[in-house]
Write a structure and sequence with these properties.
This protein is α/β, with parallel strands linked by helices. It contains 15 helices and 16 strands.
């Protein structure tokens, strides 16, 4: 049997919180990367994508399970695996040549050979003539090219890419992505396999041979989607659009709400990572879906394009509409439910009542807060009480974000009041 380039078996990662409670980030991931394969990883915030990439690179140890590179355990950074980061990670006091040479210097490569290989890598990645420039003199796209050159100069078998195009404008990202694919297709780089974390669905379908969809809390591989399309891939191609729709559906479907009418949702708990969506944004999207040209139903990729919404902006809204029962997603389309259409037609007071009923019915944390306030003699409780409960499930920052979200929803719906000076929730004025 051929040994895969990279393999993980039952890889899990648990982070210890300040109160010593363990938070499971990744749960028993089995993964292989074959020779000549590009794999993209997609998932919402908190799914552990970047953590998994760092475990593959040997930068972060798994809590359980094994990582193997060509059959050998990966317990630290190894020769043969290189990584390109989202944030460029260049040393500002070094020139382009100095930044690219750095990895070779760490490997003990002699000066003359080091310079030759660095110049070759700079030339291959399209930065010939900028060897003596400093990072501050370069555009974002040029800085990321330096990052690619620094990774490629060590002749890696495997290239790990952590959202390498996300900080670039659309045209620059498209150009750099195309150049990388051209180098890959022409075998002008020594790399045998690529694993790329992305937040862009079309990018993943354009580049990858397989797409892994990560679920969240903890991160698990929810789906492994083959992309058997010849390159170059045209986004208007029917097969391309079909895969895009499939990925959109998987990424925007709340657990248990798979788009089937009448499907029984899986229960969620108070520690559910609520989407970061404001009531105003939700109402705006419902109004948009109600009007022309959608009339209650829209293709998600087209909706994102028409409304100029990137994935990280659109997905929390879609997830929230499904969570509250205002819409459902199927085959890459979103459609308002009867409740969603009723909300669209209602006046402000009726909308507030419908929103309150939906939040109490579908958001356990909101119902829990209201129940505690109802049961307390003074109908008051500090927000910190609920924050501590959330920190059993989420990181400190995520727990605070989720609590802020549910407080904003609850205040709008008049489920409870909140005094931001005392940080106390109550039923005053109700």
């Amino acid at each position: 049997m051929t040994v895969p380039l990279l393999r993980t078996e039952a890889v899990s990662k648990t982070y210890r919180m300040p109160d010593h409670i363990g938070r499971l980030v990744l749960d028993h991931l089995d993964f292989t990367l074959g020779d000549g394969e590009i794999v993209a990883i997609l998932g919402k915030s908190g799914s552990g994508k970047s953590t998994f990439l760092r475990i593959l690179a040997g930068l972060v140890p798994p809590s359980d399970g094994v990582v193997e590179y060509r059959g050998h355990p990966v317990t630290e950074p190894v020769r043969g695996i290189a990584m390109v980061f989202q944030s460029y990670a260049l040393f500002p006091w070094l020139t382009v040549l100095g930044n690219v040479e750095l990895g070779l210097e760490a490997l003990g490569i002699a000066g003359t050979e080091r310079r030759r290989r660095a110049v070759d890598a700079i030339d291959v990645i399209g930065l010939d003539g900028f060897e003596t420039a400093y990072p501050k003199e370069l555009s974002g796209g040029m800085r990321q090219r330096v990052g690619f050159a620094r990774a490629l100069v060590v002749n890696p078998d495997i290239l790990l890419l952590d959202e390498p195009f996300s900080q670039l404008d659309v045209l620059t990202a498209e150009t750099l992505r195309g150049d990388l694919l051209d180098l890959w297709e022409a075998s002008r780089i020594p790399t045998k396999g690529i694993v790329m974390v992305s937040h862009n669905i079309e990018e993943a379908v354009e580049v990858a041979d397989r797409i892994l969809i990560f679920s969240s809390d903890p991160g698990r591989i929810r789906a492994d989607i083959p992309v058997a399309l010849p390159r170059p891939r045209a986004s208007e191609n029917a097969g391309f659009r079909q895969i895009v729709d499939q990925v959109y559906t998987l990424l925007t479907t709340v657990p248990g709400r798979d788009g089937r009418r009448g499907a029984r949702p899986e229960p969620i708990g108070i520690g559910y990572r609520l989407p970061d969506a404001s009531v105003q944004q939700l109402s705006g999207l419902i109004d948009t879906l109600t009007g022309a040209p959608y009339h209650g139903r829209a293709d998600l990729p087209l909706l994102a394009e028409d409304e100029k919404l990137v994935m990280d902006e659109l997905f929390p809204l879609i997830e929230t509409l499904q969570l509250l029962g205002f819409a459902h997603v199927s085959a890459g389309d979103i459609e308002l439910t009867g409740l969603g259409r009723t909300y669209a037609d209602a006046d402000m007071l009726a909308r507030k009542q419908l929103f309150a009923e939906a939040v109490l019915k579908h958001v356990p944390l909101a119902a829990h807060i209201r129940r505690v306030l109802d049961e307390r003699p003074g109908h008051r409780a500090p927000a910190a009480r609920f924050l501590r409960e959330l920190e059993d499930y989420l990181s400190e920052s995520e727990a605070q974000r989720v609590l802020d979200t549910v407080i904003n929803w609850g205040r709008h719906a008049e489920i409870f009041s909140y005094d931001s000076d005392t940080e106390v929730l109550s039923l005053e004025n109700f």
